[in-house]
Specification:
The chain is of the alpha/beta class and 423 residues long. The chain contains 13 helices and 13 strands. The protein binds pyridoxal-5'-phosphate (PLP).
């Protein structure tokens, strides 16, 4: 019998990793309290739970004016709108991220310009950003991807020099810090998702951190059907003017769940951070594996998924086979996103913007050469589930043992896969 679970052998990890989201009586009590209060919705904005969430979340990240809203996609669209970014403007986004990072500026009317990533971190490469800047560029959206942070020093220097807005996509980086400063408080805006897989979750929801009080007031207006709001995002005011807006308020029931999540968050983040350091060490002993670079300026690692790279030639398998085999061993993982320019959204036949000669300055599909993102997305990246880092050293040991087993039996697995393909 094979040693590999994928080929019928025994699993490396018998016990399932802990479930997500974590919940207990506190969540039930918090929701019950809101239901009994009769104040369910987000109107008038912000409700008491939403206001408390804004305050506590800004304190967690260490600054800014927090504006809770419906999700972590609209946050980025609202940031663009609040900053006056729209038709004709270009916004630079990384080639390795979820589609929302590019779709949000598009929803505001801007054109996403896709820049390649740094192979050491898989986050946007500041040199690629510099090359992508044109006279129409208005903003950069770096993504703190997986368990990494983008090089905020280099990006802020570029942004200052070119007068660009920086919107940090922190959907994976609640609690993370760069030189002691919270993710999302370094740029002009920080966008956070509270969607069910995220490390602070209320099922759905998002929070936009704004460095500037006026921007926060505008953001609150944009998500509250355009009603004028106070600077800082506080309650509606009758002094200002209506903005172009829609309803993306957060409901009080969701805010109540997020507040309970915030109580648990520090301990969960502490566990993940300690076990990530242990994982770095353990992985460095597996042949054919590359541990992503740990930047010493990334002072607190709080993360959504832990990402490493396989070196297919050396390991003997591509990342998709490694992930399939790890999953079978009981180690939850994923190959990650596809490269941004490969998303259906950006295929020429699907884009009205690509009508020949109609908008020649827009997507230059034929020029989208993004080799680092392609290598990561198509061959290398393995995203380990956060739960692996919430059950002590045993959780990490089991995952690494499974990986070693797969590496040692890579030849057998590659041959089995080849035979299956030939059938
Ligand atoms: C990097 C990134 N940005 C943005 C989002 C969008 O967040 P939401 O699903 O809350 O809209 C997600 C996840 O869903 C994400 O992973």
């Amino acid at each position: 019998m094979s040693e590999l679970a994928l080929l019928g052998g025994p699993k490396a990890r018998l016990e399932p990793y802990p479930a997500w989201p974590v919940w207990d009586q506190r969540d039930i009590d918090a929701v019950t309290e809101v239901i009994r209060s009769g104040r369910w919705g987000g109107f008038p904005y912000p409700g008491p739970k939403t206001a408390a969430l804004a305050e506590q979340f800004a304190a967690l990240q260490g600054g800014g004016y927090a504006v809770p809203m419906a999700n972590g996609t609209i946050t980025m669209e609202v940031a663009c709108r609040a900053a006056g970014i729209g038709w004709g403007d270009e916004v630079i986004v990384p080639a390795y991220t979820f589609q929302a990072t590019a779709a949000a500026p598009m929803a505001a009317g801007a054109i996403p310009v896709i820049a390649d990533v740094d192979p050491q971190t898989y986050c946007i490469d500041p040199k690629a950003v510099e090359r992508a800047i044109t006279s129409r560029t208005r903003a950069i959206i770096p993504v703190h991807l997986g368990h990494q942070m983008a090089d905020m020093d280099a990006l802020m220097e570029i942004a200052t020099r070119h007068h660009l807005i920086v919107i940090e996509d922190c959907a994976h980086a609640h609690g993370a810090k760069w030189r002691g400063q919270g993710a999302g408080t370094i740029g002009d805006f920080g966008s956070f998702s509270l969607q069910s897989s995220k490390i602070l979750t209320s099922g759905e929801g998002g929070i936009l951190l704004c460095r500037d009080a006026v921007m926060a007031g505008r953001a609150a207006g944009i998500i509250d059907c355009g009603r004028p709001h106070q600077a800082g995002g506080g309650p509606e005011t009758h002094d200002g003017e209506y903005l172009m807006g829609s309803n993306f308020r957060l409901s009080e029931i969701i805010a109540a769940l997020a507040l309970v999540g915030l109580e648990r968050f520090p301990e969960q983040a502490r566990q993940r951070e300690a076990m990530a350091a242990y994982m770095d060490e353990a992985l460095s002993e597996v042949s054919g594996v590359r541990v992503l670079q740990r930047d010493p300026r990334h002072t607190t690692r709080s993360f959504y998924r832990y990402v490493f790279a396989v070196k297919p030639e050396e390991f003997g398998l591509e990342h998709d086979m490694v992930c399939a085999a790890l999953d079978a061993e009981g180690v939850d993982c994923w190959t990650g996103y596809e490269a941004m320019h490969h998303y259906t959204l950006f295929q020429p036949q699907n884009s009205k913007l690509a009508v020949p000669n109609a908008f020649p300055q827009y997507f230059k599909f034929e020029e989208m050469n993004l080799p680092e993102a392609e290598r990561a997305c198509e061959h290398e990246a393995v995203w380990l589930d956060e739960a692996i880092f919430r059950c002590g050293q045993q959780g990490v040991d089991d995952a690494v043992e499974a990986l070693k087993k797969i590496q040692q039996n890579a030849k057998e697995l590659a041959e089995a896969a080849k035979k299956l393909k030939e059938r």
